[in-house]
Design a protein that fits this description.
It comes from Pseudomonas syringae pv. antirrhini. 52% of the residues lie in helices and 5% in strands. By secondary structure, it is mainly α. Strands 1-2 form a two-stranded parallel ribbon. α5 crosses α6.
């Protein structure tokens, strides 16, 4: 038996132990990172202007269409989104465009971006939608795997990304 053999066995065990410890530390760090959701401070642009005012509000009611200018960070926090939309409604009230029978119409996909609510800053700073979707996947790994298993349709990744946040999107949309 070579005198280096016990040392070699020791080194293999040492490196294996180090590799296991490094893996555990990496997984724990990643798990902690995925749970962190910093609440960034953001001042939304609330300067709103009336684009078109056709007709007059009547006693029988009126239809008010609002097309808000929203940015990704407006969806970061539900309260922030509510404040932004409330500013549009308040301006309409100030102009006398809202009465008890007014029906307010918003864009049909205004709730689609609710999937971004409560996500990491990197998602809002992404240069492309694809990059934002990658951040969504990496910061929600367990939900991503579960959503991927239930995904359907031609574009399974788009379906997966929406399924990750489907329950919270529905709750926030109805709030």
């Amino acid at each position: 038996m070579s005198r280096w053999q016990p040392f070699s066995l020791f080194m293999r065990k040492f490196f294996a132990t180090c590799l296991i410890l490094l893996s555990v530390v990496s997984l724990v760090s990643y798990a902690i990172w995925t749970e962190q959701r910093p609440a960034g401070h953001y001042l939304s642009d609330l300067r709103i202007r009336l684009a078109i005012n056709e007709g007059e509000p009547s006693e029988r009611g009126n239809l008010l269409g609002i097309e808000p200018v929203l940015f990704p960070t407006d969806y970061q926090n539900l309260d922030r989104l509510h404040r932004k939309l409330a500013a549009y409604l308040q301006q309409a009230r100030d102009y006398g465009l809202i009465n008890p029978k007014t029906v307010v119409v918003l864009p049909e996909h205004i709730g689609t971006w609710l999937f971004a609510s409560g996500e990491k800053d990197q998602l809002y700073q992404a240069a492309t939608v694809d990059e934002a979707m990658e951040w969504l996947s990496w910061s929600n790994p367990l939900q991503f795997v579960a959503a991927m298993l239930g995904a359907e349709g031609r574009n399974r990744m788009d379906d997966t990304h929406l399924r990750i946040k489907a329950l919270t999107m529905a709750r926030d949309y109805q709030a």
